[in-house]
Structures
1.
Amino acid sequence: MIMTDQSRRVRLVAVPEGLPKETDFLVEEHAAPECPLDGLLVKTRYLSVDPYLRGRIAGKKTYVDPIPVGNVMESGCVGEVVASRNGEFRVGEMVAGLWAWQDYVGVDAGKVQRIDAAEAPVSTALGILGMPGMTAYFGFTELCLPKAGETLVVSGAAGAVGSAVGQIAKILGCHVVGVAGTAEKVAYLKSLGFDGAVNYRTDKPYGETLAALCPNGIDCYFDNVGGEMTDAVLGLMNTRGRVAVCGQIASYNDRKEDIGHRPYTDILVKQLRVEGFIVSRWGARFPEGRKQMAAWLKAGLLRYEETVYKGLESAPRAFIGLFAGENTGKALVEL
Ligand SMILES: NC(=O)c1ccc[n+]([C@@H]2O[C@H](COP(=O)([O-])OP(=O)(O)OC[C@H]3O[C@@H](n4cnc5c(N)ncnc54)[C@H](OP(=O)(O)O)[C@@H]3O)[C@@H](O)[C@H]2O)c1
């Protein structure tokens, strides 16, 4: 049964130049969709704003299909089933999946996962128990190959992925130093148990600051950001260090490529292993990752933060806020 005949949606109306602007998006009303044959009608409760969406609205193909101008924005979302024409799902159940930024959406039942609200708050399906959590868990453990006693530096450390990486590294016995953009975030990282934290806006020169916090050098680098901080970290890496290249947010809004320092001499002489990844490569193992992260959460070893924007109309602002570091932990929009 359709619960409403009106719904709102957020469309992309221009390819952003540099930093996206709210006027690159349009919030408008549209007729609420019907419940699809064999599918579900879902009322969106949370939508996720993620840095990778910048690549999807850049007007060119990356590792995910672009969202063309005129289309409705989409990302990971959580919602409540309000009508079902599928025997597997009942009205009132909560589901997660990739869908359009709309109040109401018709979804294919085969493309959503049921969420157990009794296990953890449903919003965690977009954060610590969702894609960012899996990025932290698999990207760090599989590519940085951490050993107890080793030193990890993680950039973007107060965000959804970075805050999880640092805490996992502490669980595994590493010395952990995080990099973030404000004094409040530095204090937050220390409250999570990080051994050291750098404010990249003020703690310069980076090389000296990091060297003081990493007296035994750096064995693992989980890079969410790129740019000059990465140049400085590479200079301090130990022989046979491992670098997981997760994100390069410092350059997502650049109009021309910034090659910066050439890293290959450091990679050669220190015999570094540097590997980029897209988390979907471990998609088949997400249940294992979720189980481990949920167990650490339950044991109180992992904590998470959310920055929640209210209302569908705030989605463009929430997305743009990622590039100004407005969020601590996972940035979400609650409808
Ligand atoms: N490879 C994959 O499969 C995969 C999957 C998920 C995410 N990622 C990447 O992982 C990174 C973190 O993603 P997330 O979802 O956890 O986002 P997030 O860290 O929660 O949010 C983005 C953060 O980046 C920082 N930032 C923004 N512009 C910056 C700049 N110019 N220089 C330095 N820091 C900047 C901001 O924090 P400050 O206040 O500290 O500046 C901001 O809070 C992103 O690069 C994303 O693209 C990759």
2.
Amino acid sequence: MRLLALIGVLAIAGALAAGGFFLGGFFDISTSWDDPPPVAKAIARARDASIARHATDRPPADFGSLQRVQAGARVFSTLGCVNCHGAPGVKWQQFAEGMNPSPPDLKEAAADLTPAKVFWVVRHGIRMTGMPAFAGAASEEDLWSLAAFVKKLPDVSDADFKAWTAPPAAPAEAPKQ
Ligand code: HEC
């Protein structure tokens, strides 16, 4: 009985201390410090588990086609992904280095992600990280193209990316008579 009372008192004291710490403004909400490694690890595991459970959509039949990968490159460059993640031959904006967690290099991340996972992350975003949801900014078709492009990233050269995202050439002028 004594032990139970002690546990109760400690629990209440702990809750009050946590309340005072967080509601009293002592927690540093800035991005300028890194989570202690065990905390960072726990957050990453919770994120990966959540993505794995939610990402159940099946990719369209032409998922790996070159047309889709090229279309994905164009969507990638117009939606602003490049600002945070960079792209082949294009560096991310400097502000991305002030984000915590920092946006991963998708070329390296791609191998660990299934098409459905990329699609889900880009569609819904990742809470409390700065990774936005693009469901309102792009159609499902475009989101699958983005996923196809991200999966292909390790094989995309700087020149490919430049060619695939170049503005369409102006119509040739009729030859002068
Ligand atoms: C404002 C910056 C920002 C923009 C814009 C942005 N992202 Fe992200 N993205 C992030 C951050 C930060 C993370 C890391 C989240 C984390 O650590 O859990 C992330 C994570 C991801 C991941 C998951 C990587 C992994 O290993 O789990 C994918 C895939 C991704 N982004 C794709 C995209 C695509 C495609 C676009 C454009 C449609 C885009 N992002 C636009 C900041 C951004």
3.
Amino acid sequence: MGPPHCVSGAGALLAVQGLSVSFGGIRALDGVGLHIHASELLALIGPNGSGKTTLFNCISGVYRANQGEIRLDGRLLTGLRPDEITAFGIARTFQNIRLVHTLTVIENILLGRHRRLEGSWPLAFLGFLGREVEHRRKAEEIIEFLGLEAVRKARAGEIPFGVQRKVELARALALEPRLLLLDEPAAGLTTEEKQELVYYLREIRGRLGPALLLVEHDLALAAAACDRMMALNSGRVLAEGTAKEVQNHPEVRRAYVG
Ligand SMILES: Nc1ncnc2c1ncn2[C@@H]1O[C@H](COP(=O)(O)OP(=O)(O)O)[C@@H](O)[C@H]1O
Ligand SMILES: [Mg+2]
């Protein structure tokens, strides 16, 4: 495990190498490499269509890469199913919130929890009740952590958008991930909610400990939250380094202006 600002990929929690994906004639990812150390936050920026969500879909097993490798703690994930990857400790949120609107907040969080324990055979023997108690305890912890007590029993479809984003985050946290992938979690939030999100990103790392890969359009927010930044354009890595280095990189500036 390297120090937070370590640029070398040695001992990384997540290591991606030479990842390429094509859709018909479109090369959505073209030889992408990246690494994230334990407890580190890497911000991923890039214009629309640069391949950020595709990268998330590859890491979480939704898309299969044509080429390249994805490893978590040295273990090869490429080719595994999404539920297998989840079981290895990778959770994600979606650019478009995916809550079950007719279920309550706590039920949505419990859905995340159940997904985690599926196929986990030692726990499968503990019996329904024991698992349920454990799930509820964890869900309540996360509700308290994110300050969602007031909406715990509200239906997800009936709470404000900014709170739905928080529940989406809560559901991913319920997996107790080692790596959390956040796809534009600040999209549609007010300035105040964005500040709160930066606070929670810090708290998540400090108190719960997962590494984070954050896709974010708001560059100020990404810069405030991250240890390192990486910029993608047309499926390729344009720049990687500190937030300042990446934002001042001539090719990154050109990609954003163009
Ligand atoms: N399932 C898919 N089928 C066809 N093309 C796709 C699919 N997913 C992504 N793409 C294409 O891949 C490119 C990268 O998209 P995406 O990863 O969503 O970009 P970003 O998240 O950076 O905005 C785009 O050209 C997009 O149209
Ligand atoms: Mg996207």
4.
Amino acid sequence: MIDWMRRTPLDQHGGRLGAAEEHPGFADVAYRRRRDRLAAAAEHHPVGSASPRVEYTEAEHATWRTVHAALVEAQRERACREVLRAGENAPVPADRVPQHEEVSDHLEQLTGFRFTLAGGIVPNKRFLGAMADGYFHAVQYVRHPAMPLYTPEPDVLHDVFGHGTHLCDPWFADLYRTVGRAAARVESRDALDLISRLYWFTLEYGVAWEDGSPKAYGAALLSSYGELGHFPRADLRPLDIPDMLRLPYEVAGYQPVLYAVDALPRLADFLHGFLDDFDEDTCARLSLPALPERGFMARPGPGGTLDRRG
Ligand SMILES: [Fe+2]
């Protein structure tokens, strides 16, 4: 039995939450077997080696097409213009699930990034640190077909639509590397947790003001039809690191608090300003509050998006 099916609640990536047992994948043994088989290929997979080719089924391609049509429409209305511009170059076919290697070949030409295989939980040090070397951990499995606009865990749709769009744009790719370099410099769990939170509230769930309206740029928002519809009603706060650190962990519902930068280009100043000389002493030097819990993990895993087991 795979872990994420055993636990509740499910994560926020799909934009709708509920008990794990409510998810159609929970009782679908064939689906779970397929998902687990694709995830198992990531075990002992060295960062940077080629992902295996997956023979996706017609049902999986159909799920992709359904989500693609919904997301393209929703992003047109709710995504930042910089994201829409990046999307023009993104390796996101409309009709089929793309292979990791073709996505990677495309990204590499544009920004030097490649996908590297993940099967679920990836420790912060590996997940964040690999970004310094131009590798982004991505999964290959597809969400359950009965609920194509919702997924209890990040899937290939999330990784390609969200992170794949970012990583074909040099400006976004630089921010991933900035996060990665900071993570590569530190070892302590607290320091990695802090970087993980910063990554989470910006590149995963970030919002930017644009002509007086909040627009999505975070990968989790960009790849979730539900979140794209809901995020303007969240508690939108200005970027504030101490506030991000104090925020209690929410386990149910849409993300209730999101952080909005006043204009997307300023995000680079914010992240570079904090992360470029980040080290083990940064928290003490800036008297930052301790994280409410330990073990924040930026790479969603089978246990949920914000895995707290650390
Ligand atoms: Fe993500």
